[in-house]
Amino acid sequence: MKALVVGGTGPTGPHLVRGLIRRGYEVAIFHRGTHESDEIPPQVEHIHGDPHFRETIDAALQERSFDLVLATYGRLRHIAESLRGRAGRFIGVGGVAVYRGYKEPQRLFPQGMLIPTAEHDARVTADDEAAFSRLMTATEDAVFASHPTATIFRYPYVYGPNQLIPREWSVIRRILDGRRQIPLPEGGLMLATHGYAENLAHAVLLAVDQADASAGQAYNCGDERTLTVRQLVEVIARRMEVSMEIVSVPNHVAVTSRALTLREDLHHWVMDIGKIKRDLGYRDLVDPVDAIGRTVDWYLRHP
Questions:
Q1: In this predicted model, what pLDDT tens digit does every residue of 81-122 receive, in sequence order?
Q2: What does residue 102 show for φ and ψ, rounded to 5 degrees?
Q3: Among the listed residues 218, 219, 208, 231, the one whose alpha carbon sits nearest the alpha carbon of residue 291
Q4: Which of 185, 158, 142, 231 is nearest to 10 (CA)?
Q5: Which of 41, 74, 221, 296 has the least C-beta neighbours within 10 A?
Q6: In DSSP terms, which residues pair with 36 in a beta bridge?
Q7: In which region does residue 188 sit, left (phi positive, over 0), alpha (psi from -120 to 50) or beta (all else)?
Q8: Which residues touch 277 (CB under 8 Å, ≥6 apart)?
Q9: What value does the mean pLDDT take over residues 270-296?
Q10: What is the DSSP letter of 211?
Q11: 231 in helix, strand or coil?
Q12: What's the whole-model pTM score?
């Protein structure tokens, strides 16, 4: 059995690749070659090319076919269309920004996304709404048009080793610098679903194992428990064996906290992951508190 992982060197990639090898797949990864990873087993083939454009995708993959494709990176729509008829099973990774209210909370009444937000809640489809989210919706539809039995995973913010947007580092660096106070907007009580890389890879591999149950489905995924920004800081501080004073400030002046909240407004976004738990039996492999601790340890080894 042959599997292609588009991406493969980011946070979830090595977990996916190793999981596929354990399942007996001969694995190739398709990526630009910008970020090579020593966590990828040596028997894995590397196909270098840009997965963002149809012409470069076609040039890199030529007429090759695969029993399974996991598309975690690049422009998902072009990848799906290029591999139409050449992928026995197609699993694509998108994001939770597809939902109405994620980019523009004022579009909803009352303002902000529903808590929790489920897969059947409205996606962005109108031309006058957030363009990025509208394109994500169109991409999901294009994937199912090319591969009716595909599965889509809507990733939240991913954390863990190899993440290129290291929210935890802004706290770790503050502690390493000897500072023991941290300003957080409105006390850091914002809630947002996050997913530890190993947990998200586990979710995707459940779909690999249960092709019939997951065919044609879109799933929210993320950690089972959602921590506030304040709790995140508390966990990091304890892991580093220090005490941090959290200083509550109004959101409009909490500019230095944007690396933690990842947005300017403080509307919550909490995903309902009940569907993947019911359909595929998902449970976290790593508890979020332990996952944050492991992430801190990795950043301390790779500052």
A1: 999 999 999 999 999 999 999 999 999 999 999 899 999 999
A2: -70, -50
A3: 231
A4: 158
A5: 41
A6: none
A7: left
A8: 283
A9: 98
A10: H
A11: helix
A12: 0.96
